[in-house]
Amino acid sequence: MSGPNKFFDDMSKLMTSAMGVAQGARTEAETAMKSWMDRWLADRDFVTREEFEAVRAMAQKAREENEALKARLAALEAAAPLPNTGRGGKSKE
Q1: In angstroms, how far is the first alpha carbon of the chain from the final one?
Q2: Residue 63, domain member (yes or no)
Q3: DSSP assignment of 20-43, as one string?
Q4: Rounded CA separation 32/37 (Å)
Q5: In angstroms, rounded to a whole number, what is the distance separating the alpha carbons of residues 33 and 87?
Q6: Residues 60 and 74 in one domain
Q7: Are 41 and 34 in contact (CB under 8 A)?
Q8: 0.70 exceeded by pTM
Q9: DSSP letter string over 78-92?
Q10: What Rg, from alpha-carbon coordinates, does the chain have?
Q11: For 19-66, what is each residue's pLDDT tens digit?
């Protein structure tokens, strides 16, 4: 019975080798596709998620600072006396 066992052993080795080759081809195809996609995205000037989040955080901080400055300016304007325009009109004093 060494004949059928040898046949199955050879078939098993052949299938194992074929699976290894298929796995290698799959890995190579994935690498090539990822490289192609990275190149395609870079050519279109898309930004990464990290870059987008960084700019978003900077914009949010600028909006918050702008609102704080608006409030400060409004408080200063409310506290400041009205200037005399000097256009010949009478002052309210």
Answers
A1: 122
A2: yes
A3: HHHHHHHHHHHHHHHHHHHHHHHH
A4: 9
A5: 74
A6: yes
A7: no
A8: no
A9: HHSPPPP--SSPPP-
A10: 37
A11: 888 899 999 999 999 999 988 888 888 888 999 999 999 999 999 999
Q: What is the pLDDT of residue 59?
A: 98
For residue 38, the enclosing domain spans: 17-46
Residue position matching structure tokens 């050519």? 43
Angstrom distance (rounded) from CA 11 to CA 55: 58
**Identity (one letter) of the amino acid at 31?**
T
Token reading at 48: 């990464």
Residues ≥6 apart with Cβ < 8 Å to 92: 82
Q: What's the structural domain count of the chain?
A: 2
Domain co-membership, 52 together with 73: yes
Tell me the residue type at 23.
Q
Give the type of residue at 60: Q
